[in-house]
TrEMBL record:
SMART domains: FCD, HTH_GNTR
InterPro entries referenced in this protein's UniProt entry, alphabetically: GntR_C (IPR011711), TF_FadR/GntR_C (IPR008920), Tscrpt_reg_HTH_GntR (IPR000524), WH-like_DNA-bd_sf (IPR036388), WH_DNA-bd_sf (IPR036390)
Alphabetical list of PANTHER family matching this protein: REGULATORY PROTEIN GNTR HTH, TRANSCRIPTIONAL REGULATOR, GNTR FAMILY
GO function terms (MF aspect): DNA binding; DNA-binding transcription factor activity
Transcription is among the record's keywords: yes
Protein's name in the database: GntR family transcriptional regulator
Keyword DNA-binding: yes
Every HTH gntR-type domain range: 13-81
């Protein structure tokens, strides 16, 4: 029973559910778009006015539902706003990596084409930053860091296409996409495995949809022996 007129704290289960609802509402409102990283756990504790364990449980529940994805050493990202993306993600398993490449090609080629038509100055700045981070990660020789930076650049291209459904579907293959890049690196960043994405960014900046599409397709050519 509450004392001195102070309302009793809601049961823990209800607090978690309320926190899940608040997080969902912010995602749906576009505060944290698909592909973006949500605030850190301490920031969420302060913003939502709940305890650390409550935030942790709410984030875990949304990750299990396929709305969020926790990436070790990088943070927690929004990968979906609905139920479709988790279904797609569950189907893209390690034994279907060839299919992941084909899906990436379908998404990324069209995203590059649209980005060349629709990019804004803010998009171009984001692409420049992502490209610079990708190259810095490559020079650093750390595979995990490079894989995340590479994914961030491709996500920035998709964001520049300004197609919400495309962004959601692309985010749904994020984990599988990073696995394909990790496999392609073979555990080490050697010169023969480097793929220059500067021309892709340049084509988007130039507003050339056909060239941007060709550049996006060039590094996702199917294996002739597949």
């Amino acid at each position: 029973m509450a004392k001195l007129g102070i309302p009793a704290a809601p049961p823990r289960g209800r607090r978690i559910q309320e926190t899940i609802t608040q997080l969902r509402q912010r995602i749906l409102a576009g505060e944290w778009p698909v592909g973006s990283r949500i605030p850190t756990e301490p920031q969420l504790v302060e913003a939502l006015g709940v305890g650390r364990n409550t935030v942790r449980e709410a984030v875990r529940a949304l990750a299990h539902a396929g709305v969020l994805e926790c990436r070790q050493g990088s943070g927690t990202y929004v990968i979906s706003t609905d139920e479709l993306a988790p279904v797609v993600a569950r189907r893209l398993t390690d034994d279907r990596m060839a299919e992941v490449i084909e899906v990436r090609r379908a998404f990324e080629v069209e995203a590059a084409r649209l980005a060349a038509r629709r990019r804004t100055p803010a998009d171009l700045a984001a692409l420049d930053d992502a490209l610079a981070a990708r190259e810095a990660a490559w020079r650093g020789g750390r595979v995990a860091e490079f894989v995340e930076a590479d994914a961030a650049l491709h996500t920035a291209v998709v964001a520049a296409a300004h197609n919400g459904m495309l962004a959601e579907l692309y985010a749904s293959i994020g984990a599988a996409m990073r696995r394909t890049v990790t496999q392609a690196m073979g555990g080490a960043l050697t010169p023969d495995r480097h793929v220059d994405h500067a021309r892709l960014v340049a084509a988007i900046r130039a507003g050339d949809p056909d060239l941007a599409a060709r550049e996006a397709a060039a590094f996702l050519e199917p294996d002739p022996g597949a």
